[in-house]
Amino acid sequence: MPADIEVRHLHKKYGDNVAVADVSFTVEQGEIFGILGPNGAGKTTTVECVEGLRRPDGGEIRVLGLDPQHDRAELTQRLGVQLQDGQLPDRMTVGEALRLYRSFYREPADPQALMDALGLAAKHRTRYADLSGGQKQRLSIALALIGNPKVAVLDELTTGLDPQARRDTWSLIQDVRARGVTILLVTHFMEEAERLCDRVAVIDRGRVAAVDSPTGLTERVQDGQRIRFRPSVPFEDALLTDLPDVTGLTRQNDLVVVTGTENALNAITSVLARNNIVAQHLRVDQPSLEDAFVALTGNHPAAGADAAPGTSDASPAARS
Ligand SMILES: Nc1ncnc2c1ncn2[C@@H]1O[C@H](COP(=O)(O)OP(=O)(O)OP(=O)(O)O)[C@@H](O)[C@H]1O
Ligand SMILES: [Mg+2]
């Protein structure tokens, strides 16, 4: 069975500015595939090419076997799209927006069920202008799913949502996938990628830095374990740095931070015990997806995660 989304050597420029240099990935049927990357990395440009909203300058894209440029009308029926900062007319109510979007599709979903799942039922008579940022975001997710799509492309799915709404949205997306829908999502949230995505592409400066499962990406970080504790009595560094499983030791006042292989913890605790040293407040940190992201891109993800929708320099008004 061919992949639901195939992107090969995508290249896209805005004037002289190369937004996407060379991006390739495939998304299999029923997969939740994430795109992670720093601000300006080319994530939105990539998914807009997948959606047929932008014409690539090079490379090839197939979605459900269709060319997003040539077969746009047919693809629209099968593709659900959530724009990073989509706008609706201020006076349109939630219910009107859902009914309008519903009318575009041959086999739409039930608007009431979607409003219930997204906590919008009480807001169906509220005008777009009077919704909070998080409610607008929930509506944009509902509009992406109203056509009962085979493939949904979601750009910054949960940016601006409160923690409970974020969790509710994750379980909605898992339900949608359980019905066989393929999902491509752009996110800045490591936890979202870890919980939802089968595989993740890390995109940096218009190129794919890595594609792997969240666990696979994390395992690429060579750091191993990081162990912190406060020793009950002072000791010489060599006591631990002589151990083959220990790769480094630093001290922050009376706190000792040791890095090492996955066997380091056992080795350290036995040596300390033999020397009658108690390791107080012992903590072990495993490498996280965030560590992998930082190692791959040299960027800290928090900067993007805190950005409100609409702070991007790429406004939808300028898009064509
Ligand atoms: N309409 C546009 N006209 C000109 N340049 C653009 C346009 N949209 C995006 N760009 C540029 O292309 C590059 C990639 O932008 P893109 O929106 O794809 O990034 P992104 O990875 O989605 O970033 P973010 O995390 O901030 O949403 C940036 O340098 C951006 O300034
Ligand atoms: Mg973007």
Number of separate helices: 12
Q: What kind of sheet is the major sheet?
A: 6 strands, mixed
So what's the oligomer here? single chain
Low-confidence stretches: 303-320
- Indicate the overall shape: elongated
> How confident overall, as mean pLDDT?
89
The bound ligands are: adenosine-5'-triphosphate, magnesium ion
Helix-strand pattern: EEEHEHEHHHEHEHEEHEHEEHEHH
| Domain tally | 2
Keywords: Antibiotic resistance, ATP-binding, Cell membrane, Membrane, Nucleotide-binding, Translocase, Transport
GO molecular function, one term: ATP hydrolysis activity
Subcellular location: Cell membrane
Domain ABC transporter: 5-230
Write up what this structure looks like.
- It contains twelve helices and 13 strands.
- With 320 residues, the chain is an alpha/beta fold.
- The chain has two domains: 5-219 and 294-318, 3-Layer(aba) Sandwich (Rossmann fold); 225-286, Alpha-Beta Plaits, CATH 3.30.70.
- It has a six-stranded mixed sheet with strand order 5-6-7-3-8-9, with helices on both faces.
- Mean pLDDT is 89; it is low at 303-320.
- It binds adenosine-5'-triphosphate (ATP) and magnesium ion.
- Adenosine-5'-triphosphate binds at residues 14, 17, 19, 37, 39-45, 84, 304, 312-314, 318-319.
- Residues 5-230 form the ABC transporter domain.
